[in-house]
Give the backbone structure.
Amino acid sequence: MKTTRSRQMGLTMIGLIFILSFIGIVVLFVLRAFPLYNEKFQVIAAMNSAASQATESMQEREIAMSFLKSLQATTNIQRFTDRNLKEYVEVVKAGKKGEPKQLRVHFQATNVLAKDLNLMLAFDHSIPIRGIAADGGD
């Protein structure tokens, strides 16, 4: 009795379906996560712009409004408005004398990945406000 071993060459249909479904899942995840990360980088850019424009004479509200104007000028993010700006943006006083104040923005953004599965971006970022020390303007 002779046994012949057949050599498999290439992909089987099941292997091809597995690879295509894996690629599809990765593409779905990337397409759903991209807007969240894009928003994150746009907010960071607006924070840097507002922090670099801040002066000693600016009040906390003016710095927050500078952030909002910078964000509205360059993006289409609707999360931040005049009414809810205080909820998301704050100017934190430095702990030690001589250290700069911090511009802090914090929010949560979600995007639906699949039916009951959501992606959530928890954003909490602080940057130093250049030129404003703790003993400087309020």
About this structure: The radius of gyration is 25 Å.
